[in-house]
Amino acid sequence: MDICVYCASSNAIAEDYFALARELGAAMAEQGMGLVYGGGSVGMMGELARAVHAAGGHVVGVIPQFLLDREVGYLQADELIVTTTMRERKRMMDERAAAFVALPGGFGTLEELLEILTLRQLGYHDKPIIIVNAGGFFDPLLAQFERGFASGFTHERYRRLYEVAGSVSEALALLAAGDAGIDKAGS
């Protein structure tokens, strides 16, 4: 099972975030899960890919040519798919993934997370989506989600679109259960 992971490409972040990426990467590989991700060698993305490899896992990177030209691609990936556009990159990542995990990140991470949530809401896929809220990083975003529910902008049934995990072990348990974000009541 290949898991698409969204996370930061910044190197200017606290070591705790790099450790989180390494922990997830190692744990995924140990459980036989492959990585599909944005193909970068920097930031949490690079740490994640290297950790998957170090634990014997399989890495698929998907990167646009313009980013590869900037020498930020993880050339050691088992498969490095080079795309023309960011949209093509996201489509390929979406198609290859059995589930999605969001770690802390910036605009790109948030954009990818919100798009994959929206695509699930619209019925384009029914794959699990897990937000790893390590250290409360996503608390403001989750509060905004709650505001949307409370204000009627987002229907209550869409709470089932995602699960929130407080740790890597909790995220992996949700993935292993295979039902993250699925409303068992059928509503």
TrEMBL record:
InterPro entries: LOG, LOG_fam. Keywords: Cytokinin biosynthesis, Hydrolase. The keyword Glycosyltransferase does not apply. It comes from the Bacteria. Its EC number is 3.2.2.n1. SUPFAM superfamilies: MCP/YpsA-like (SSF102405). Belongs to the LOG family. Pfam families: Lysine_decarbox. This is Cytokinin riboside 5'-monophosphate phosphoribohydrolase. GO terms for cellular component: cytosol. It comes from Kouleothrix aurantiaca. GO terms for biological process: cytokinin biosynthetic process. GO terms for molecular function: hydrolase activity, hydrolyzing N-glycosyl compounds.
